[in-house]
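Convert to structure. Protein one:
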Amino acid sequence: MATAVLAQPELIEQAKQELKERLGNEIYQNSIPQGVKPSYIRKYLSNVIE
């Protein structure tokens, strides 16, 4: 699925436009503070799960 989207840049642009319309004047605030790095265990497990 993701490869199909990446192969069609117009879908990405449509998604960006839809997000702008849905958010209006709101700005998305990431709940994870900037500079926080994943723990070693989480990084290890994500590699095992893939």
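Protein two, convert as well:
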Amino acid sequence: MDQATAALGTPEPVDAASDAQWTVFYEHLAAHGALGHAVLAAGIRPETVYDRRRSDTDFAMQTDYLRLRGEPAL
């Protein structure tokens, strides 16, 4: 079990993305509303965004707002 855990390596820290990458991420998310596409456009590892969403409530609320603001009301 220890060998398998060690083989996974250390996760990338949340702040591993640059300010410029986060700017691209937010702009793309605001324009298109898709986390996955924004991650790819910014060149940020998906795990970085999802880990940050789990650990930072303000970030999670902001990304939810940007994702949902373009959807039509029910």
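The two ends are 48 Å apart (CA to CA). Residues 8-12 have pLDDT under 50 and may be disordered.
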